[in-house]
Amino acid sequence: METLLFLFPQFNYMAPKEEAYFRMFAVEDLQSPAMKDDSNKERKSRLSLFLTKSGSHENVSPHKKTNTTTSNISPEAALQWSDSFEELLKHTDGVETFSQFLRTEFSEENIEFWLACEEYKTIDSETKRLSKAKYIYTVYIESEAPKEVNIDYNTKMAIQKNMEHPTRGCFDAAQMKVFSLMKKDSYPRFLHSDIYMRITRRKGPGATMFRRRSRSCVFNERGEAKTEPSAW
């Protein structure tokens, strides 16, 4: 380990999961290009296995209940998430519940990538930023990455070129594409999902309807969503 710290000082700045990832693959940076090509498939396989064991990648059936409870989230708080996707992302409980929903659709890599990019942009240390950029690229961007997000070839190549000296905004284009995909595709389905309905239909005695200004939907007394663009 001391040798790796000397050769790769990034260890001093990493979170435990990223440190473990870097520890597994740092020695490969010392290999010749030919050796790297030979071990590329094995490396990706090992990384995928590592992410699974570390809990970063969950194989959740669409019909399987998630482990995280939503019982402590009030219907009033959850209804704020229907105002807009941007509003949902402002709430920790909203992000966690949305993540649970994405796991049922096997697309949790989208919100995980978006959150990783948000964290990446807050990093001031150049050394730590380089390590985080390589982690994001290896896990989410490169071809056949264990949690590869759906972005176009040109965006992927632009990121690849930036990996030697990654800038603070090197993932911005990819992050925006993934954000748009979640907003236009996943978010509307989330608002009509069982996991969201279970939260919003919980109400106190005498309540008849939860109703607030929303561009997405309103909820009747049975907790059913109804599209109504002009609703309050």
TrEMBL record:
Q: In terms of domain of life, where is this protein from?
A: Eukaryota
- Magnesium as a keyword? no
What SUPFAM superfamilies does the annotation carry? Regulator of G-protein signaling, RGS
Residue span, RGS domain: 84-200
State any GO BP term from the record: otic vesicle development
Task: Keywords in alphabetical order, please.
Answer: Signal transduction inhibitor
Check the record and name the SMART domains matching this protein: RGS (SM00315)
Concerning Pfam families, the annotation shows: RGS
Q: Could you tell me which InterPro entries the record lists for this protein? A: RGS, RGS_sf, RGS_subdomain_2
What PANTHER family would the database entry show? REGULATOR OF G PROTEIN SIGNALING, REGULATOR OF G-PROTEIN SIGNALING 18
Q: What is this protein called?
A: Regulator of G protein signaling 18
